[in-house]
TrEMBL record:
The gene is ung2. Belongs to the uracil-DNA glycosylase (UDG) superfamily. UNG family. GO terms for cellular component: cytoplasm. It is an enzyme of class 3 (hydrolase). This is Uracil-DNA glycosylase. The active site is at D65. Excises uracil residues from the DNA which can arise as a result of misincorporation of dUMP residues by DNA polymerase or due to deamination of cytosine. It comes from the Bacteria. Pfam families: UDG (PF03167). Residues 50-210 form the Uracil-DNA glycosylase-like domain.
Length: 227
């Protein structure tokens, strides 16, 4: 496995790379790539860390598992590559954005501009076998991404942790709520969006929390991309 941790995260995460669980995880992912197609491509596995340096993390948005169909996953939760149709959860996020913050729905699902504004867009599991959801869970990724969450929690400045759905909300135990803000509601998946995601105004809530801590708000509007 290509261990491409950007320099800003070295101090926070280098000790994890030496642990037995991570070495086993490396062996597992290498074995999977030798026998199957695995998403995202090797060079994109740590994209969330590359696009949002440790010192610039103001928001942590937690997803669960990478998209498992062709050309979708590129290392950011909920985001897909340019030219790929937005999946259902992202479509629902766009619907809520439109009603919450006067968002114009773009022609793509490429969320890199959010990551570049300080949103760490982290999946709990960073790889998946093609067309086989959750196929890499319980292999060690969760320990690694819990370590990322703990390191963000250790930041001196307040961070907004965005936890959608029951799986993400289990991570509340890792977060110091006396220092940081949690924005928790239902997941935008079609299975749950009508049970507490639609109408919950998460995006304006995030910006209000950033404003309260003296940090720049997120410009949620995404540009249209040329075909």
């Amino acid at each position: 496995m290509l261990i491409d941790i950007p320099e800003s995260w070295h101090e926070a995460l280098n000790s994890e790379l030496e642990k037995d669980y991570f070495k086993k995880l490396e062996t597992f992912v290498d074995g999977e790539r030798a026998q199957h197609e695995v998403f995202p491509p090797e060079q994109d596995v740590f994209s969330a860390l590359k696009l949002t340096p440790y010192e610039k993390v103001n928001v942590l948005l937690l997803g669960q598992d990478p998209y498992h169909d062709n050309n979708q996953a590129h290392g950011l939760c909920f985001s897909v590559r340019p030219g790929i149709k937005p999946p259902p959860s992202l479509v629902n996020m766009y619907k809520e954005l439109r009603s919450d913050v006067d968002f114009r729905i773009p022609n793509n699902g490429y969320l890199v501009p959010w990551a570049e504004q300080g949103i760490l867009m982290l999946n709990a599991v960073l790889t998946v076998r093609a067309h086989s959801p959750n196929s890499h869970k319980n292999q060690g990724w969760e320990k690694f991404t819990d370590a990322v969450i703990k390191r963000v929690n250790a930041k001196d400045d307040p961070v907004v942790f965005v936890l959608w759905g029951g799986y993400a909300q289990k991570k509340k135990a890792l977060i110091d709520t006396t220092k940081h803000r949690i924005v928790a509601m239902a997941h935008p998946s079609p299975l749950s969006a009508r049970n507490g995601f639609f109408g919950s105004k998460p995006f304006s809530t995030i910006n209000a929390a950033l404003r309260e801590s003296g940090k720049p708000e997120i410009d949620w509007q995404l540009p249209d991309l040329k075909a």
